[in-house]
């Protein structure tokens, strides 16, 4: 298989694996984003900016403490299956675009091999450098997509917070004036009947533009740029582990073709790689998600952010250091499983491609020989 065909095969396999992994694990990603963006002030904090509406948001607080499975079931019950897959279309597009940039780095490694500067895989330092450059460009071009995905995933969460604020304001108004109880109950019932539903990509884009203009599509860009080290760490661990596994098998002299890892081994290597990358960069992911989500999720001004530094300071001040790891267990399960599926599917697609190419080559060779044989002798 030629280098150009190899690059195409890697691109198709990588995009295919990424898309399948995204579809399978997307419900976990949606719930995780909601966990990351749920904001609750520490009970010890007594600040005039912390409103009673925020401390009384029992439904949001209880959902924040609920297990991932319970939250998934809650979303299905209140929003249907569409709530778990809100933002899937732009997310798939973003995943495919990201895989294209990753495969560009692999193409550079192949070019190095042709020039005799490597074995076709990037060394540790070279991989970190190339992945950082490709990742930075990737972030700048695809950040608007992920802003829309975050908005779509957390839209109903923000709408519920807005409803809670309206209820709080209504109850406060009723306590300060001679509100008729039947009128109050009617208005509260009206608010309860307004159940938030997921919205589409176009509406999310219109909302972002209305709030912050074009700059709104690059919210969270600073922590996201820093996070370009995540895929570098992930693929560095994976490629190093894979090369070590193949070398160890070759040393055992198990026979021709036996150096290729099995699907389960690739799955486990992918899980290990993603686990290491996720743990090291998770706090940045939380900050990014909070900046990209609608700020009404914060409830009051103390839990709304104007930028990266403001978000970090307020998270430490009002919620504590544990806020940087909200939903981490869900993220580990989702990202590790997604990475494992990605690598496994990619390897299987590549094997199928190579086998098909080999059979086609054999068929063409047999056909050519058959055409020449009548003239032989």
TrEMBL record:
Recorded topology in the membrane: Multi-pass membrane protein
Highest taxon, organism lineage: Eukaryota
Regions crossing the membrane: 122-141
Polar residues biased stretches: 44-54
UniProt GO BP: nucleotide transport; transmembrane transport
Any Pfam family matching the protein: Mito_carr
InterPro entries assigned to the protein according to its UniProt record, in alphabetical order: MCP_dom_sf (IPR023395), MCP_transmembrane (IPR018108), SLC25A32-like (IPR044712)
PANTHER family: MITOCHONDRIAL NICOTINAMIDE ADENINE DINUCLEOTIDE TRANSPORTER 1-RELATED-RELATED
Family in the record: Belongs to the mitochondrial carrier (TC 2.A.29) family.
Name by which UniProt lists this protein: Peroxisomal nicotinamide adenine dinucleotide carrier
Natural source organism: Morus notabilis
Native organism taxonomy: Eukaryota, Viridiplantae, Streptophyta, Embryophyta, Tracheophyta
């Amino acid at each position: 298989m030629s280098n150009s065909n190899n690059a195409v095969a890697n691109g198709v396999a990588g995009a295919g694996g990424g898309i399948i992994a995204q579809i399978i694990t997307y419900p976990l990603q949606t719930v995780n984003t909601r966990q990351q963006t749920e904001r609750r002030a520490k009970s010890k904090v007594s600040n005039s900016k912390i409103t009673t509406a925020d401390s009384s948001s029992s439904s949001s607080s209880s959902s924040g403490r609920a297990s991932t499975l319970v939250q998934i079931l809650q979303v299905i019950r209140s929003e249907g299956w569409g709530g778990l897959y809100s933002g899937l279309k732009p997310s798939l597009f973003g995943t495919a675009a990201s895989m294209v940039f990753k495969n560009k780095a692999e193409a550079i490694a192949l070019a190095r091999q042709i020039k005799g500067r490597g074995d076709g895989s990037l060394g540790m330092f070279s991989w970190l450098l190339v992945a950082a450059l490709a990742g930075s460009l990737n972030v700048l071009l695809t950040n608007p997509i992920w802003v829309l995905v975050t908005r779509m995933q957390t839209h109903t969460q923000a709408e519920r917070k807005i409803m809670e604020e309206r209820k709080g304001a209504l109850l406060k108004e009723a306590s300060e004036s001679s509100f008729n109880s039947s009128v109050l109950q009617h208005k509260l019932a009206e608010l309860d009947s307004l159940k938030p539903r997921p919205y589409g990509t176009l509406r999310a884009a219109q909302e972002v533009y209305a709030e912050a203009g074009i700059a709104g599509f690059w919210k969270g860009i600073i922590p996201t740029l820093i996070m370009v080290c995540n895929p570098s760490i992930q693929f560095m661990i994976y490629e190093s582990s894979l090369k070590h596994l193949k070398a160890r098998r070759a040393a055992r002299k198990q026979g021709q073709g036996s150096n290729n890892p099995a699907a389960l081994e690739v799955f486990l290597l992918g899980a290990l790689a993603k686990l290491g990358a996720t743990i090291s960069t998770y706090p940045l992911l939380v900050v990014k998600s909070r900046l990209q989500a609608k700020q009404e999720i914060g409830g009051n001004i103390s839990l709304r952010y104007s930028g990266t530094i403001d978000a970090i300071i307020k998270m430490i001040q009002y919620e504590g250091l544990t806020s940087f790891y909200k939903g981490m267990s869900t993220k580990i399960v989702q990202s590790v499983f997604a990475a494992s599926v990605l690598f496994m599917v990619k390897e299987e697609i590549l094997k199928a491609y190579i086998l098909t190419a080999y059979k086609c080559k054999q068929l063409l060779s047999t056909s050519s020989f058959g055409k020449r044989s009548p003239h032989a002798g």
